[in-house]
Automatic annotation (TrEMBL):
It comes from the Bacteria. InterPro entries: Prenyltrans, Terpenoid_cyclase/PrenylTrfase. The lineage of its organism: Bacteria, Bacillati, Actinomycetota, Actinomycetes, Kitasatosporales. This is Terpene cyclase/mutase family protein. Residues 53-165 form the Prenyltransferase alpha-alpha toroid domain. SUPFAM superfamilies: Terpenoid cyclases/Protein prenyltransferases (SSF48239). Residues 345-365 are annotated as: Disordered. Keywords: Membrane, Repeat, Signal, Transmembrane, Transmembrane helix. GO terms for molecular function: catalytic activity.
Length: 403
Protein backbone atom coordinates (compact mmCIF):
# COMPACT_ATOMS: atom_id res chain seq x y z
CA UNK A 1 0.00 0.00 0.00
CA UNK A 2 1.64 0.87 -0.16
CA UNK A 3 3.78 5.45 -1.72
CA UNK A 4 6.64 7.13 -0.33
CA UNK A 5 9.68 9.37 -0.81
CA UNK A 6 10.21 12.86 -2.12
CA UNK A 7 8.52 13.99 -5.30
CA UNK A 8 11.70 13.46 -7.29
CA UNK A 9 12.15 9.87 -6.19
CA UNK A 10 8.45 9.16 -6.57
CA UNK A 11 8.60 10.35 -10.15
CA UNK A 12 11.53 8.04 -10.83
CA UNK A 13 9.79 5.06 -9.32
CA UNK A 14 6.51 5.76 -11.10
CA UNK A 15 8.00 4.85 -14.46
CA UNK A 16 8.73 1.30 -13.31
CA UNK A 17 6.07 -1.40 -13.60
CA UNK A 18 5.61 -4.39 -11.39
CA UNK A 19 6.69 -6.77 -14.11
CA UNK A 20 10.18 -5.37 -14.64
CA UNK A 21 12.80 -8.09 -14.12
CA UNK A 22 14.01 -8.06 -10.55
CA UNK A 23 17.56 -9.07 -11.33
CA UNK A 24 18.61 -5.43 -11.63
CA UNK A 25 19.32 -4.98 -7.92
CA UNK A 26 22.97 -5.78 -7.19
CA UNK A 27 24.26 -7.53 -4.14
CA UNK A 28 25.93 -5.22 -1.65
CA UNK A 29 29.64 -4.70 -2.04
CA UNK A 30 31.92 -4.69 1.01
CA UNK A 31 31.65 -0.89 1.11
CA UNK A 32 27.84 -1.20 1.24
CA UNK A 33 27.46 -3.51 4.21
CA UNK A 34 23.94 -3.35 5.63
CA UNK A 35 22.84 -3.68 9.26
CA UNK A 36 22.78 -7.28 10.42
CA UNK A 37 19.42 -6.65 12.08
CA UNK A 38 17.83 -5.86 8.72
CA UNK A 39 15.85 -8.38 6.72
CA UNK A 40 16.89 -8.85 3.10
CA UNK A 41 20.25 -8.39 1.40
CA UNK A 42 19.44 -5.78 -1.24
CA UNK A 43 19.95 -2.04 -1.01
CA UNK A 44 17.39 -0.80 1.54
CA UNK A 45 17.53 2.86 0.54
CA UNK A 46 13.95 3.00 -0.64
CA UNK A 47 12.31 0.14 1.24
CA UNK A 48 14.29 -0.68 4.39
CA UNK A 49 11.61 0.29 6.92
CA UNK A 50 8.83 -1.10 4.75
CA UNK A 51 10.31 -4.55 4.27
CA UNK A 52 11.42 -4.77 7.89
CA UNK A 53 7.93 -3.88 9.04
CA UNK A 54 6.30 -6.45 6.78
CA UNK A 55 8.77 -9.13 7.84
CA UNK A 56 8.14 -8.52 11.55
CA UNK A 57 4.38 -8.30 11.05
CA UNK A 58 4.34 -11.55 9.11
CA UNK A 59 6.40 -13.31 11.79
CA UNK A 60 4.04 -12.11 14.49
CA UNK A 61 1.06 -13.24 12.41
CA UNK A 62 2.32 -16.84 12.38
CA UNK A 63 3.40 -16.89 16.02
CA UNK A 64 7.12 -16.31 15.49
CA UNK A 65 8.85 -13.95 17.92
CA UNK A 66 11.25 -11.79 15.89
CA UNK A 67 14.84 -11.21 16.91
CA UNK A 68 14.94 -8.43 19.49
CA UNK A 69 17.64 -6.57 17.60
CA UNK A 70 15.48 -6.50 14.46
CA UNK A 71 12.62 -4.92 16.35
CA UNK A 72 14.99 -2.44 17.97
CA UNK A 73 16.42 -1.56 14.56
CA UNK A 74 12.94 -0.61 13.37
CA UNK A 75 12.24 1.45 16.49
CA UNK A 76 15.51 3.37 16.06
CA UNK A 77 14.54 4.34 12.52
CA UNK A 78 11.92 6.73 13.87
CA UNK A 79 12.58 10.47 13.59
CA UNK A 80 12.13 12.78 16.56
CA UNK A 81 8.80 14.06 15.22
CA UNK A 82 7.35 10.54 15.12
CA UNK A 83 7.73 9.94 11.39
CA UNK A 84 9.71 7.25 9.62
CA UNK A 85 11.77 7.69 6.49
CA UNK A 86 12.12 4.95 3.91
CA UNK A 87 15.54 4.19 5.40
CA UNK A 88 18.04 5.96 7.65
CA UNK A 89 21.53 4.48 7.27
CA UNK A 90 22.65 6.19 10.48
CA UNK A 91 19.83 6.65 12.99
CA UNK A 92 22.15 8.53 15.35
CA UNK A 93 22.01 11.43 12.89
CA UNK A 94 18.88 13.52 13.41
CA UNK A 95 16.31 13.77 10.66
CA UNK A 96 16.37 17.10 8.86
CA UNK A 97 14.77 18.85 5.90
CA UNK A 98 16.59 16.50 3.51
CA UNK A 99 15.20 13.36 5.13
CA UNK A 100 12.64 11.76 2.82
CA UNK A 101 9.73 11.18 5.19
CA UNK A 102 7.35 8.47 4.16
CA UNK A 103 3.71 8.01 5.17
CA UNK A 104 3.72 4.41 3.95
CA UNK A 105 6.84 3.40 5.87
CA UNK A 106 5.45 5.13 8.95
CA UNK A 107 2.13 3.32 8.64
CA UNK A 108 3.75 -0.06 8.07
CA UNK A 109 5.98 0.43 11.12
CA UNK A 110 2.92 1.32 13.20
CA UNK A 111 1.12 -1.85 12.11
CA UNK A 112 4.13 -4.03 12.90
CA UNK A 113 5.00 -2.48 16.25
CA UNK A 114 1.36 -2.36 17.37
CA UNK A 115 1.04 -6.07 16.63
CA UNK A 116 4.23 -6.90 18.51
CA UNK A 117 3.14 -4.84 21.51
CA UNK A 118 5.17 -2.87 24.02
CA UNK A 119 5.83 0.09 21.75
CA UNK A 120 2.94 2.41 22.51
CA UNK A 121 5.10 5.52 22.77
CA UNK A 122 6.58 4.88 19.33
CA UNK A 123 3.26 4.16 17.65
CA UNK A 124 1.49 7.06 19.38
CA UNK A 125 4.11 9.51 18.12
CA UNK A 126 3.95 8.02 14.63
CA UNK A 127 0.16 8.30 14.49
CA UNK A 128 0.33 11.88 15.75
CA UNK A 129 2.69 12.70 12.90
CA UNK A 130 0.41 11.01 10.36
CA UNK A 131 -2.49 13.11 11.59
CA UNK A 132 -0.37 16.25 11.30
CA UNK A 133 0.27 15.65 7.59
CA UNK A 134 -3.28 14.63 6.64
CA UNK A 135 -4.49 16.45 3.54
CA UNK A 136 -7.54 18.70 3.49
CA UNK A 137 -9.47 16.10 1.50
CA UNK A 138 -8.98 13.65 4.38
CA UNK A 139 -6.37 11.49 2.66
CA UNK A 140 -2.62 11.11 2.42
CA UNK A 141 -0.01 11.06 -0.30
CA UNK A 142 3.19 9.08 -0.24
CA UNK A 143 5.22 12.06 0.92
CA UNK A 144 3.85 14.73 3.27
CA UNK A 145 1.97 17.32 1.26
CA UNK A 146 1.66 15.10 -1.80
CA UNK A 147 -1.71 14.63 -3.46
CA UNK A 148 -3.84 11.97 -1.79
CA UNK A 149 -3.81 8.54 -3.37
CA UNK A 150 -5.74 5.37 -2.65
CA UNK A 151 -2.75 3.28 -1.58
CA UNK A 152 -1.26 5.75 0.88
CA UNK A 153 -4.63 6.65 2.37
CA UNK A 154 -5.48 2.99 2.83
CA UNK A 155 -2.21 2.00 4.50
CA UNK A 156 -2.63 4.94 6.92
CA UNK A 157 -6.16 3.71 7.70
CA UNK A 158 -4.60 0.35 8.55
CA UNK A 159 -2.20 2.06 10.95
CA UNK A 160 -4.99 4.01 12.61
CA UNK A 161 -7.03 0.85 13.09
CA UNK A 162 -3.99 -0.99 14.48
CA UNK A 163 -3.74 1.41 17.42
CA UNK A 164 -7.48 1.52 18.09
CA UNK A 165 -8.27 4.78 16.33
CA UNK A 166 -11.55 5.17 14.44
CA UNK A 167 -10.53 6.32 10.94
CA UNK A 168 -13.86 8.03 10.32
CA UNK A 169 -13.11 10.32 13.25
CA UNK A 170 -9.66 11.35 12.02
CA UNK A 171 -10.56 14.47 10.09
CA UNK A 172 -8.89 17.44 8.45
CA UNK A 173 -11.13 20.27 7.44
CA UNK A 174 -14.16 18.12 8.18
CA UNK A 175 -12.98 15.37 5.81
CA UNK A 176 -12.06 11.84 6.87
CA UNK A 177 -9.92 9.24 5.08
CA UNK A 178 -13.12 7.65 3.82
CA UNK A 179 -14.09 10.87 2.09
CA UNK A 180 -10.77 10.78 0.24
CA UNK A 181 -11.27 7.15 -0.79
CA UNK A 182 -14.79 7.74 -2.06
CA UNK A 183 -13.49 10.50 -4.34
CA UNK A 184 -11.11 7.94 -5.87
CA UNK A 185 -13.75 5.25 -6.41
CA UNK A 186 -15.07 4.76 -9.93
CA UNK A 187 -18.77 4.49 -10.64
CA UNK A 188 -20.57 1.48 -12.06
CA UNK A 189 -20.53 2.40 -15.74
CA UNK A 190 -17.84 1.94 -18.36
CA UNK A 191 -14.40 0.35 -18.16
CA UNK A 192 -13.20 -0.45 -14.67
CA UNK A 193 -16.64 -0.19 -13.12
CA UNK A 194 -16.39 -0.45 -9.33
CA UNK A 195 -12.62 -0.12 -9.13
CA UNK A 196 -10.48 2.44 -7.35
CA UNK A 197 -8.05 4.72 -9.15
CA UNK A 198 -4.63 5.46 -7.75
CA UNK A 199 -5.02 9.21 -8.32
CA UNK A 200 -6.92 11.32 -10.85
CA UNK A 201 -5.01 11.88 -14.08
CA UNK A 202 -4.02 15.33 -15.35
CA UNK A 203 -7.54 15.88 -16.62
CA UNK A 204 -9.07 14.84 -13.32
CA UNK A 205 -10.30 11.52 -14.72
CA UNK A 206 -10.20 8.28 -12.78
CA UNK A 207 -8.69 5.15 -14.32
CA UNK A 208 -9.15 1.71 -12.78
CA UNK A 209 -6.05 0.32 -11.09
CA UNK A 210 -6.20 -3.21 -9.74
CA UNK A 211 -3.56 -2.72 -7.08
CA UNK A 212 -5.11 0.53 -5.88
CA UNK A 213 -8.42 -1.35 -5.79
CA UNK A 214 -6.99 -4.05 -3.52
CA UNK A 215 -5.66 -1.34 -1.23
CA UNK A 216 -8.89 0.63 -1.44
CA UNK A 217 -11.05 -2.35 -0.47
CA UNK A 218 -8.99 -2.88 2.68
CA UNK A 219 -9.00 0.83 3.46
CA UNK A 220 -12.74 1.18 2.95
CA UNK A 221 -13.24 -1.79 5.28
CA UNK A 222 -11.02 -0.12 7.89
CA UNK A 223 -8.50 -2.95 7.89
CA UNK A 224 -4.74 -3.30 7.71
CA UNK A 225 -2.47 -5.83 6.05
CA UNK A 226 -3.37 -8.76 8.30
CA UNK A 227 -6.97 -9.94 8.06
CA UNK A 228 -8.97 -13.00 8.93
CA UNK A 229 -11.43 -14.59 6.51
CA UNK A 230 -14.71 -12.70 6.70
CA UNK A 231 -18.13 -14.36 6.51
CA UNK A 232 -19.15 -15.06 2.94
CA UNK A 233 -20.32 -11.90 1.23
CA UNK A 234 -23.73 -11.71 -0.36
CA UNK A 235 -23.86 -11.28 -4.11
CA UNK A 236 -23.87 -7.48 -4.14
CA UNK A 237 -24.31 -5.61 -7.38
CA UNK A 238 -22.32 -2.50 -8.18
CA UNK A 239 -24.04 0.60 -6.87
CA UNK A 240 -23.06 4.24 -6.49
CA UNK A 241 -20.20 4.29 -3.95
CA UNK A 242 -21.81 6.67 -1.51
CA UNK A 243 -20.46 4.87 1.56
CA UNK A 244 -17.18 3.09 2.27
CA UNK A 245 -18.88 -0.28 2.58
CA UNK A 246 -20.39 0.03 -0.88
CA UNK A 247 -17.10 1.20 -2.38
CA UNK A 248 -15.44 -1.87 -0.84
CA UNK A 249 -18.12 -4.16 -2.29
CA UNK A 250 -17.76 -2.54 -5.71
CA UNK A 251 -13.99 -2.89 -5.58
CA UNK A 252 -14.21 -6.54 -4.56
CA UNK A 253 -16.51 -7.16 -7.51
CA UNK A 254 -14.01 -5.55 -9.87
CA UNK A 255 -11.18 -7.66 -8.48
CA UNK A 256 -13.19 -10.86 -8.72
CA UNK A 257 -14.02 -10.19 -12.36
CA UNK A 258 -10.46 -9.19 -13.25
CA UNK A 259 -8.91 -12.20 -11.55
CA UNK A 260 -11.36 -14.58 -13.18
CA UNK A 261 -10.54 -13.16 -16.62
CA UNK A 262 -6.80 -13.63 -16.08
CA UNK A 263 -6.79 -17.24 -14.86
CA UNK A 264 -6.82 -16.22 -11.22
CA UNK A 265 -4.03 -13.64 -11.18
CA UNK A 266 -3.45 -9.99 -11.99
CA UNK A 267 -1.11 -8.77 -14.69
CA UNK A 268 0.95 -5.66 -15.33
CA UNK A 269 3.20 -4.45 -18.10
CA UNK A 270 5.63 -1.74 -19.05
CA UNK A 271 4.85 0.31 -22.12
CA UNK A 272 5.65 -1.70 -25.23
CA UNK A 273 5.90 -5.04 -23.44
CA UNK A 274 3.50 -7.92 -23.01
CA UNK A 275 1.53 -8.26 -19.75
CA UNK A 276 3.18 -10.46 -17.14
CA UNK A 277 1.78 -12.06 -13.99
CA UNK A 278 1.86 -9.65 -11.06
CA UNK A 279 2.43 -11.86 -8.04
CA UNK A 280 2.52 -9.18 -5.36
CA UNK A 281 -0.63 -7.44 -6.48
CA UNK A 282 -2.39 -10.80 -6.78
CA UNK A 283 -1.49 -11.52 -3.16
CA UNK A 284 -2.87 -8.12 -2.17
CA UNK A 285 -6.08 -8.89 -4.04
CA UNK A 286 -6.43 -12.20 -2.17
CA UNK A 287 -6.19 -10.37 1.15
CA UNK A 288 -8.74 -7.77 0.06
CA UNK A 289 -11.24 -10.34 -1.19
CA UNK A 290 -10.88 -12.45 1.95
CA UNK A 291 -11.45 -9.36 4.10
CA UNK A 292 -14.66 -8.66 2.19
CA UNK A 293 -15.86 -12.24 2.33
CA UNK A 294 -15.35 -13.17 -1.32
CA UNK A 295 -13.70 -16.41 -0.28
CA UNK A 296 -14.32 -18.33 -3.49
CA UNK A 297 -12.16 -16.18 -5.75
CA UNK A 298 -9.70 -15.50 -2.94
CA UNK A 299 -9.05 -19.22 -2.54
CA UNK A 300 -8.77 -19.78 -6.30
CA UNK A 301 -6.17 -17.03 -6.59
CA UNK A 302 -4.37 -18.33 -3.51
CA UNK A 303 -4.08 -21.72 -5.23
CA UNK A 304 -2.56 -19.98 -8.26
CA UNK A 305 -0.03 -18.27 -6.00
CA UNK A 306 0.87 -21.59 -4.39
CA UNK A 307 1.70 -23.01 -7.80
CA UNK A 308 3.51 -20.01 -9.24
CA UNK A 309 4.73 -17.44 -6.71
CA UNK A 310 7.41 -19.13 -4.60
CA UNK A 311 10.20 -18.47 -7.10
CA UNK A 312 9.15 -14.81 -7.27
CA UNK A 313 9.28 -14.56 -3.48
CA UNK A 314 12.71 -16.17 -3.35
CA UNK A 315 13.98 -13.60 -5.83
CA UNK A 316 12.45 -10.61 -4.09
CA UNK A 317 12.93 -11.37 -0.43
CA UNK A 318 11.26 -10.57 2.89
CA UNK A 319 8.42 -8.28 1.84
CA UNK A 320 7.40 -10.73 -0.89
CA UNK A 321 7.39 -13.65 1.56
CA UNK A 322 5.37 -11.50 3.96
CA UNK A 323 2.76 -10.74 1.32
CA UNK A 324 2.29 -14.42 0.58
CA UNK A 325 2.01 -15.15 4.31
CA UNK A 326 -0.66 -12.46 4.63
CA UNK A 327 -2.56 -14.00 1.69
CA UNK A 328 -2.29 -17.48 3.19
CA UNK A 329 -3.43 -16.25 6.60
CA UNK A 330 -6.39 -14.40 5.09
CA UNK A 331 -7.67 -17.58 3.48
CA UNK A 332 -6.95 -19.93 6.37
CA UNK A 333 -4.10 -21.60 4.47
CA UNK A 334 -1.03 -22.92 6.30
CA UNK A 335 1.93 -20.74 5.21
CA UNK A 336 4.27 -23.51 6.33
CA UNK A 337 2.84 -25.73 3.59
CA UNK A 338 2.34 -23.28 0.76
CA UNK A 339 2.36 -25.38 -2.37
CA UNK A 340 4.99 -27.50 -0.66
CA UNK A 341 7.07 -24.50 0.48
CA UNK A 342 7.53 -23.30 4.05
CA UNK A 343 7.10 -19.54 3.70
CA UNK A 344 7.81 -18.95 7.37
CA UNK A 345 11.14 -20.76 7.26
CA UNK A 346 12.07 -18.95 4.06
CA UNK A 347 11.17 -15.55 5.50
CA UNK A 348 13.11 -16.23 8.69
CA UNK A 349 16.16 -17.13 6.61
CA UNK A 350 16.30 -13.61 5.13
CA UNK A 351 17.29 -12.06 8.46
CA UNK A 352 18.38 -12.75 12.02
CA UNK A 353 17.14 -15.92 13.67
CA UNK A 354 13.92 -15.38 15.62
CA UNK A 355 14.03 -15.47 19.39
CA UNK A 356 13.94 -18.90 20.95
CA UNK A 357 13.17 -20.05 24.45
CA UNK A 358 15.95 -19.18 26.85
CA UNK A 359 17.68 -16.70 24.55
CA UNK A 360 17.52 -13.21 25.99
CA UNK A 361 17.80 -9.89 24.24
CA UNK A 362 21.10 -9.29 26.02
CA UNK A 363 22.46 -12.53 24.62
CA UNK A 364 21.38 -11.55 21.12
CA UNK A 365 23.00 -8.14 21.40
CA UNK A 366 26.24 -9.64 22.72
CA UNK A 367 26.45 -12.19 19.93
CA UNK A 368 25.94 -9.50 17.30
CA UNK A 369 27.83 -6.59 18.85
CA UNK A 370 29.88 -4.68 16.33
CA UNK A 371 28.26 -6.41 13.37
CA UNK A 372 26.10 -3.53 12.14
CA UNK A 373 28.01 -1.40 9.67
CA UNK A 374 26.29 1.45 7.91
CA UNK A 375 27.32 1.69 4.30
CA UNK A 376 28.10 4.59 2.07
CA UNK A 377 24.92 5.57 0.22
CA UNK A 378 25.45 6.40 -3.38
CA UNK A 379 23.23 3.95 -5.19
CA UNK A 380 20.28 5.60 -6.91
CA UNK A 381 18.06 2.61 -6.19
CA UNK A 382 15.54 2.66 -9.01
CA UNK A 383 16.72 -0.77 -10.12
CA UNK A 384 15.97 -2.07 -6.65
CA UNK A 385 12.27 -1.44 -6.84
CA UNK A 386 11.99 -2.72 -10.39
CA UNK A 387 10.14 -5.98 -10.48
CA UNK A 388 9.68 -6.50 -6.77
CA UNK A 389 6.02 -6.80 -7.63
CA UNK A 390 4.97 -5.79 -4.14
CA UNK A 391 1.60 -4.14 -4.43
CA UNK A 392 1.32 -2.04 -1.28
CA UNK A 393 4.94 -1.08 -1.37
CA UNK A 394 5.25 0.40 -4.82
CA UNK A 395 1.75 0.37 -6.26
CA UNK A 396 0.79 3.97 -6.42
CA UNK A 397 4.29 5.40 -6.19
CA UNK A 398 5.46 3.48 -9.15
CA UNK A 399 2.63 2.93 -11.59
CA UNK A 400 -0.71 4.09 -12.83
CA UNK A 401 -1.44 1.41 -15.37
CA UNK A 402 -4.98 0.63 -16.37
CA UNK A 403 -6.20 -2.87 -16.00
Amino acid sequence: MNVRRSAAVLAAVAVIGAATPAAAAPSPSPSQAFPSALYGDKDPKFDGVWRQSLALLAQDTVGVKPAAKSVEWLVRQQCADGSFASYRPDPTTACDAKTMLDTNATSAAVQALAALGGHDAVTDEAVSWLKSVQNKDGGWGYAPGGASDTNSTSVVIGALAAVGEKPEQVEKGGKSPYDALLKLALGCDGDGAGAFAFQPDKKGELAANADATAAGVLGALGQGMVVKPAPAAKGETCEKPGKPEQAAANGAGFLTKTLAEDDGHLTSALAGSDPQPDFGNTADAVVALAAHGDTGQAEKSLRWLEKNATAWAAQNGPAAYAQLIFAAHATGTDPRDFGGADLVKQLNATGPDPQTAGKTQAAEEKSDSGSDVFGVWWYVGVCLVAGVGIGFLFSGRRKKQQL
